[in-house]
Specification:
The complex is a heterodimer. Chain A is mainly beta. Helix content of chain A is 0%, strand content 53%. In chain A, strand 5 and strand 6 form a beta hairpin. Chain B starts with a strand and ends with a strand. The chains are: A mainly beta, B mainly beta.
Chain lengths: 113, 113
C-alpha cells in the first residue's frame, strides 16, 4: 500500500534563507508525487507534481522538488523564502492505476523575519 | 478556482446526532473524495467515489457513510456523531485517476460536543 512520511512537523526558517522540506514515500509500484500548500484557514492547492521524465520539477511561487527513485524521496526546496510562504505543506502520492491520493502528515513552515 | 462548494462551512452538533456534509462540484469530474484533517495526522481519506453510486472506503471510514446519486454531489454522513469526529472535513475532486491534480473545497469545521 502507498504511504508518505514527512519527517519534519515544523520547520522555522529565516526570511530569504533557503529551505528544504523532506518527503519519503513507500510503494511497491510506480507512483505519481505531489506537493500541496495550505494557507491558514484555506483548502489545499497544488504546488507541483511529478509524473514522469525529468526528476527536477518546478512549481509555483519559486518552489521546486526532486524525485529520487533510489531514495524514494521527493523533497521540496526553495532558494529564498518570504513571509508569504508561511503555510503548511503536504506531500502526497498516487500509485499508477490507483484512484486514491494519500497524504503525509504535513510540515508547518514558519518564516522568521 | 475549481467549482467546489462545501456546506455547511461550520457546524456544531451534539454527540449522538446524525450529521450530513455536502460537497457540490460544477466541473463534472469523475472522482470525489472526503478527507478529514487533524493536527499531527495530516489529511486522511474517509471515503471516495469513482462514479455515480460507485464508492469505496478509505483508511478511516468507520462511523461514516457516503452517497453519490448525481455526478455533482457527494454526501458524507455521520450516523451518530462522536467527539472523536470533531475535525475539519475537506472534499476534493479529480478529473481522472492517479496522474491528475486534485482540487479541494474550503473545508467544513465540525465540532461535536
Amino acid at each position: 500500500a502507498q504511504s508518505v512520511t514527512q519527517l519534519d512537523s515544523q520547520v522555522p526558517v529565516f526570511e530569504e534563507a533557503p529551505v528544504e522540506l523532506r518527503c519519503n514515500y513507500s510503494s511497491s509500484v510506480s507512483v505519481y508525487l505531489f506537493w500541496y500548500v495550505q494557507y491558514p484557514n484555506q483548502g489545499l492547492q497544488l504546488l507541483l507534481k511529478y509524473l514522469s521524465g525529468s526528476t527536477l520539477v518546478k512549481g509555483i511561487n519559486g518552489f521546486e522538488a526532486e524525485f529520487n527513485k533510489s531514495q524514494t524521496s521527493f523533497h521540496l526546496r526553495k532558494p529564498s523564502v518570504h513571509i508569504s510562504d508561511t503555510a503548511e505543506y503536504f506531500c502526497a502520492v498516487s500509485e499508477f492505476g490507483n484512484e486514491k491520493l494519500t497524504f503525509g502528515t504535513g510540515t508547518r513552515l514558519t518564516i522568521i523575519p | 478556482d475549481a467549482g467546489i462548494t462545501q456546506s455547511p462551512r461550520h457546524k456544531v452538533t451534539e454527540t449522538g446526532t446524525p450529521v450530513t456534509l455536502r460537497c457540490h462540484q460544477t466541473e463534472n469530474h469523475r472522482y470525489m473524495y472526503w478527507y478529514r484533517q487533524d493536527p499531527g495526522h495530516g489529511l486522511r481519506l474517509i471515503h471516495y467515489s469513482y462514479g455515480v453510486k460507485d464508492t469505496d472506503k478509505g483508511e478511516v471510514s468507520d462511523g461514516y457513510s457516503v452517497s453519490r446519486s448525481k455526478t455533482e454531489d457527494f454526501l458524507l454522513t455521520l450516523e451518530s456523531a462522536t467527539s472523536s469526529q470533531t475535525s475539519v472535513y475537506f472534499c476534493a475532486i479529480r478529473a481522472r485517476d492517479a496522474h491528475t491534480e486534485a482540487f479541494f473545497g474550503q473545508g467544513t469545521r465540525l465540532t461535536v460536543v
